[in-house]
Amino acid sequence: MADEKRKNLTAVQQDYQAxxxxxxxxxxxxxxxxxAFFVGGLICVxxxxxxxxxxxxxxxxxxxAGNPTxxxxxxxxxxxxxxxxxxxxxxxxxxxxxxxxxxxxxxxISAAIEHRTEGFVLGVGSNMFKLAGSVILxxxxxxxxxxxxxTIAVKWGGLG
Amino acid sequence: MMKKVTLLLVCSLFxxxxxxxxxxxxxxxxxxxxxxxxxxxxxxxxxMDQSAAQQAVNxxxxxxxIRDAVAVNTxxxxxxxxxxxxxxxxxxxxxxxxxxxxxxxxxxxxxxxISSDLKLFWKTNELKKQLQKTRMGERKLNEEIEKLKxxxxxxx
Lengths: 160, 156
Fold this sequence. Notes:
Number of helices of chain A: 9
Distance between the termini of chain B: 41 Å
Oligomer: heterodimer
Helix content of chain A: over 70%
Order of helices and strands of chain B: HHEEHEHH
Shape of chain B: globular
Strand content of chain B: 5-15%
Structural class of chain A: mainly alpha
Number of helices of chain B: 5
Number of domains of chain B: 2
Largest sheet of chain A: none
Order of helices and strands of chain A: HHHHHHHHH
Helix content of chain B: 40-55%
Number of strands of chain A: 0
Number of domains of chain A: 2
Radius of gyration of chain A: 22 Å
Largest sheet of chain B: 3 strands, mixed
C-alpha cells in the first residue's frame, strides 16, 4: 500500500520524503521494549501480590482468586488515572502499562475525564467506552472464536 | 507531591501484601517456609492415625515434578495437597492424573482427594498442625476434609 502510494508521487515529493526520513527522530524501539518489559512485569508482580493477599486472608483458591485480583487491579489503575499518576507511568513505560488489565481501567477513566465537559449523559456516558468498547467487543469475539475452535477440536479432532 | 503519593501507594501495597500474623508467621509469603515444610509433612496425633497420610506424602515426594506435599487422613478419607515445581506447571494435568492413580492404587480403601492448589496446601498444612496440637475427633476431621474438598472443587 505504502509502496504503491510512493510510486504515484512526483520526483520532488519523493526527494522530500527521503529528506524528511533522514531527519526524523528515530524511535528507540529497544529502549521502549525494555521499559515496557520491566514496568509491565512490576505491574504483574503487584497483581501476584494482590492475588496472594486474597488467597491468604480470604477463602479464595489459586483458581478463584483471579476475579477479585482483576477487579482490584482495574480499580487501582482507575484511581491512579484519576490522580494523573498512571498517565505519567504510561508516558515512561508505553505498552507495559497498556497491555496488562490495568490499561483497561486507564482507558475507561481517561475517556470519561476527557469528555466530562460535555455533560454526564452525552459526554461521560456515551464516551466512557470509546476505547474500552473495542476491547470488550473484540475480547468477547476472540473468546467466542477460540471456544469454537476448541469445541471443534475436542468433539471431532479428539483433542483434550 | 506526586512522588510522595506514588511512593505511599506502592509502599502500602507491599506492606499489605506481606502482612503476617504471629501465629501463622511460619507461613509468611516472603519466607521459604511457605513452600518448604521442615516437618516430614504429616501429623503424629494420638487420636487419629496419620500413617496413611505419612505414607502418601513419602510416596508423592519421591516424584521428580513434586516440590512438596502435605496430607491428612481419616479412616476412609485421604486428602493430599502438593506443589508442582515451577516449570512442571505446564504438565499440571498430567501430574494430577498420575498422582491420583498412584494414590488410588496404594490406598484402595480410602477415598482419595488431591489438589495442587497453593491455598489448599496452606489449609491442609494448617489442619495438620492443628491435629498435632489438639485432639480432634474423627467426625470433626472428616468435616474439615470435606470442607477442603469443597474448596478444591470451586472454579469460579
